[in-house]
Write a structure and sequence with these properties.
The protein is of the alpha+beta class. It has seven helices and seven strands, in the order H-H-E-E-E-H-H-E-E-H-H-H-E-E.
Amino acid sequence: MPGTSEVKVVDTKQVVANASPETTDSSASGSSEAGKNNGSYPAIRRRLPDERHSLTHHFSIGGQEGYVTVGLFEDGAPGEMFIRMAKEGSTVSGLMDSFATAVSLALQYGVPLKVLCDKFSHTRFEPSGWSGNPKIGYAKSLMDYLFRWLELRFLKGEQGILFELSNGKHPPTEVRNPTKALSEIVSLGDAPTCQFCGSLMVRNGSCYRCMECGSTSGCS
């Protein structure tokens, strides 16, 4: 009839099947280029050599004792971590073992150690307590202690001192004025401990300031 339009039904499956190879190749290459532009490159795992140096450290927090062993790459960077708790077969032991495997894979796939330390330091859960390590003090959890220790050893330059001692070389000791050292001890007085990290605070004007996490006792 005049004035009416004819509707044509198209089979989409047939259209896809009849598509030219050039069109298919161009669409595939276009998606590949889009993936490269978005930065979606496959992660490459950096494996440790069969024979590598390692560092083992003993810790005790809230009645939970254990050992952490860190395997090192050729350049001295940490590449794997093993956590062995004293109470074998416990829930804590299984969780720490699985978590150490996850951290090892993260390090080998290029996750910076600083990112992990910033993420897991100062996490609070039980067990917690005094660690016996004068450079860490109060540990809010096992994760808090382990990653603060990793930060001290591998991000603040203390691993160089450690390897010098293992090679029989002693780092030069600083000669300090005994009067100045005594004045620093006296200035602590009855300084309180930090409510956030447990470290001993230092007087800052009329209040106290924590040298570890930067918090204050209430003054600005």
